[in-house]
């Protein structure tokens, strides 16, 4: 991929001088602060350089311009954890769905939509946007679906990629074109609708999830009771 869309600044410049990691971090941090305070329109190379205590040439030595810089900053903030594997398919899919939500809630819908508008005309920037914003969470949820199929909880005949598209499309639409991200209650309802069509035995999944929740609550209550008796 060309330097125009590289998210990681080159380690050395044209003269072979190592880049300063401190300046890299300061530029990314300054970009995120401005995004939070003023939105995407407020990000300019001048404003970022001033807040980071450096210069415009320092930015151009690392990224081709504003779009590539903002992509790098957003990538630094999005932290997609490893997908859960508790043995409870409903619990794991619910948590994996929250992986999508948690990552996008760190970036405002206005920023995501405006950034994509700048990336869309350029094939390489568009590919980098997808690789940075879309694919990490999609891959994490995909692993959860694969384990659910292996356990026999989801039908082997389901179209895995299509199911991921359903999940991703719902979240991405709200993340880019709505004033607010998808809420927790809406997410739970969406999972229910999706799994009723994809699960081999959806009521059994619900029963298993409720049993685990009851077991966890009972364990907490038992520990609290023993602790209270010990204090008497």
Total count of strands = 0
Specify the number of helices.
10
Annotated CATH topology of the largest domain: Tetracycline Repressor, domain 2
The unreliable regions are 1-5
Question: Can you tell me the CATH architecture of the largest domain?
Answer: Orthogonal Bundle
Broad shape:
elongated
Average of per-residue pLDDT values: 80
Beta-strand content bin:
under 5%
- Give the ordered list of helices and strands: HHHHHHHHHH
Distance between the termini: 67 Å
Task: Itemize the secondary structure elements and their pairings.
Blueprint: H1 21-38, H2 45-52, H3 56-60, H4 66-77, H5 89-104, H6 109-119, H7 123-151, H8 160-177, H9 184-198, H10 202-231
Helix pairs in contact: 1-2, 1-4, 4-7, 5-7, 5-8, 5-9, 6-7, 6-8, 7-8
Provide tags for this entry.
mainly alpha; Tetracycline Repressor, domain 2; 2 domains; 10 helices; disordered N terminus
Description:
The protein has 232 residues and is an all-alpha fold. It has two domains: 3-75, Orthogonal Bundle (Tetracycline Repressor, domain 2); 78-224, Tetracycline Repressor, domain 2 (Orthogonal Bundle), CATH 1.10.357.10. The protein has helices at 21-38, 45-52, 56-60, 66-77, 89-104, 109-119, 123-151, 160-177, 184-198, 202-231. It is elongated, with a radius of gyration of 22 Å.
Write a concise synopsis of the structure shown:
Helices cover 70% and strands 0% of the residues. By secondary structure, it is mostly helical.
